[in-house]
Amino acid sequence: MIREHLPVLQVVLSLVAAPLCLLLTRAVWAWLLAFIVSVAALLISIVLLREVYTGEVISYAIGGWAAPWGIEYRVDAVNAFILIIVTAISVVALMFAKTSVAQEVAGDKQGLFYTAWLLCLTGLLGIAVTGDAFNLFVFLEISSLSSYVLIGLGQDRRALTASFQYLVMGTIGATFILIGIGLLYMVTGTLNMMDLAARLAVLGDSRTVQTALAFLTVGIGLKLALFPLHLWLPNAYTYAPSAVTVFMAATATKVAVYMLLRFLFQVFDASFTFGAMPLGGFLAVLAAVGILSTSTVSIFQDNVKRMLAYSSVAQVGYMVLGISLVSSAGLTAALLHLFNHALMKGTLFLALGCVAYRLGSVRLGAIAGLGQRMPWTMAAFLVGALSLIGIPLTAGFVSKWYLILAAVERGWWPLVVVIVAGSLLAIIYVWRVVEMAYLRPPPEKLSVTEAPLSLLLPTWLLAGANVYFGIDTQFSVGMARQAAALLIGSSG
Amino acid sequence: MDLLGLYNYWIVILLMMMGFYVVIASGHLVKKLIGLNLFQASVFILYISMGTVDGGAAPILRSGVGVFSNPLPHVLILTAIVVGVATTALGLALVVRIKEAYGSVEEEDIHRQDDSL
Amino acid sequence: MKDNVVLRVVTKIIVPVILVFSLYVQFHGDYGPGGGFQAGVIFAAGFILYALVFGVEAIDRVFSAATLRIMTALGLLLFAGVGFWSLIGGERYLDYDALAQEPLVGQHLGIFLVELGVGITVAAVMITVFVAFAGRTPD
Q: Which ipTM did the prediction report?
């Protein structure tokens, strides 16, 4: 009986836990509640994934109001995949957060920290689950507002300005999305995504629909940190508390990619988005320039967290590149990279979180000789870094491989060059860290020890996942392929 | 084409660009938030004016009225207004803390103090 | 502003009216224009007006920080609780039909409770926001 209600429970559990968290005075209890709810959400998403794995689509009518009129929650292969990424990362990041947040966030604010975390989780899960365009906007704002709070809780005062910058740009992005949805509603008179798709197919092209597409793409592009709309991201990631950076880097942009896919391929038809409108070439160029320029910028960063933040923008470029190929192979690669990037950036930021916990700094100069002093932490960093570059036997290799195959299939050779060049640039910036950590002697008076087990465990959990999904690709590739087939098939 | 007949769109565009301009051009953080509010308000008007039905009455059931305006955009925009209020409150709270941390709410001053931003 | 006798007297007269009006907007919201959000804001506005004239500390006598926090959580829990109630009743989440034998009564009860939850949370949040700004001492 409870099984049929899983789509709504996926979102509502964390939504209910948030006010409960507000009432808990002790930080430990708040953490425990957040953790238990995240684990429950993970279990729910696993059950949902198993149900839609056969190609089934679960539809749930909120309040018993049938689909085009009421709000429909809709789970298919695409969002089940996203749900599992978001919930799994939330669980791992919360494991890490207990020790890390206790150090980085003031004691009386920790309860509120976990409240904001749960709200952010609610928002991200809601965006993925909902089948209603306006509901998507509401969940987007829930997740955005809570992430501004989480970022603003960083220790450095620059966290405040970073958060403010993100707030201004994020709000403009969300308002653009709101305009896009409004224009679509104006043309079709419906907000349900499936219904929108059906009606748009009948109504065909008009200037309003074109404008709606433009607003939605730019708005989602802002949330996605698509080059050149990424300016908020480096500061936000750099100055946020370590656990928040892990959570944001591995989930927030991924959910934005999901939104982009949903709108470009399902609400609008791919033949409209990439045929009648020249969005494919547009996205491909932005992605290619983004990959090359932000990878180059990350080489010159002194702060390792900031370096990885710029690298995240480049990685988003790879995903958008896959999307712009508009083929089943391209989408598979994009979705696969979405999954793998969550793993690798998660690992890297977790390892940096360990470093920040012991050293209080993640500047390049500070980590000299850490390979000897914190061997396990730096080894995990190394695994994540290898995966980021795309060395065989790591998850990063698999997605880059599929991406190159997809580009070759379309005969877009310049893109292959871009992908390889991006990887080479990644070797350079990662090498700077590796050199510093392993080849430089540690300063004499440095007396740091290995990070505590409570931080190492989640770090190695994700590092292990990088290797595991680099070797056994059955789940990730199978899931990505199925989701891609669904997206391409729906706009046939 | 009757340009003035679509006056509600002109109001929307005017407000939107005014708001957008303030967000970009002003270095004062509070003014930026005011611009952001103006920007959002234009979208509220877009939605609300969208719900108009020619000759329609206010959407309250009573006898003798057959044609109503569409109430759905109003309901949607109520939600968006709530979001706007929350955003403004959070933005102002950040400004207060920035003022305490930097002693200024001018973007240039702040950048000068932290040259990395 | 405490010294200004006009403000003091007018505030004392007008605040009860504001509060009663907010209750009207709240509980008449399912028949006419109104609802939890509007009512919550009006309710909070009454207290904010009082605090503007008599000082922020005045709010603390009615709503302490802890009370506001509990109210914020309570409203949301009431809303979500109605959803779970309909789940237990064997219907979809937030399907008010499950709340009573008669669907009409259920719908009525459901929207009443949900709007009450919204009203409580909105009022508490609005007052919290005001107190957070007006009563803030830099730390």
A: 0.93
